[in-house]
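INTERNAL AUDIT FORM
Audit reference: QA-55
Scope: verify that the stored structure record matches its stored sequence.
Auditor: D.O.
Record contents follow.
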Amino acid sequence: MDAAPEFSEEALETGRVLFAGSADFVLGVASLSGLPPADRAEVCFAGRSNVGKSSLINAITGRAKLARSSAEPGRTRELNYFDIGSGQLFLVDLPGFGYAKVSKTQTAAWTKLIKSYLRGRPSLRRVFLLIDARRGGLMDTDEEVMKLMDSAAVTYQIVLTKIDKVPKGEVEKTAAKITEKLKKHGAAHPVVRMTSSEKGWGIPELRAEIAALAALG
């Protein structure tokens, strides 16, 4: 499964401490002019609608309702900024791909906003691209976003979600298949993370990964 060496106890503790501190919603950004100052490290979470972004953000931060989840895919229609650790890190929740029940004009506007953000945010350290493990691999929309990040030279990392809903053997096959595809993407981090927000699997490791990025400033 995960080919990376295990995080040290110190690294895991650093991640725990970072997310044990404050975690507050700052603002929702609908245009680039509304972005906050790029004065700290920033990571963002991207993925198709209903992939479990809100649940994962809540699991990482240990807050049940920090990020709002909805039965209606595509509810997140802005770049939602969260301040982690009293100014140590910005965590950004991007609008989901594959929006439901919205106009083509709205979809085009959100897509333009995301592309502009990814290309022009100097403090962005990594994009975590979430993939629902139940889908068995990448979808066309996922690969489109990956190509965009490749062209923008934005480092991104695949995170499988909801692995508790899939037999372990299938999760391993999915991770291996995605890992092979990542070799063709220049900006992709080679390690696929596997998580379950419901069970807490992979959450300490993801916290440690983000804490290391926060330390870069």
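Auditor finding: record pair retrieved intact. The radius of gyration is 16 Å.
Action required: none
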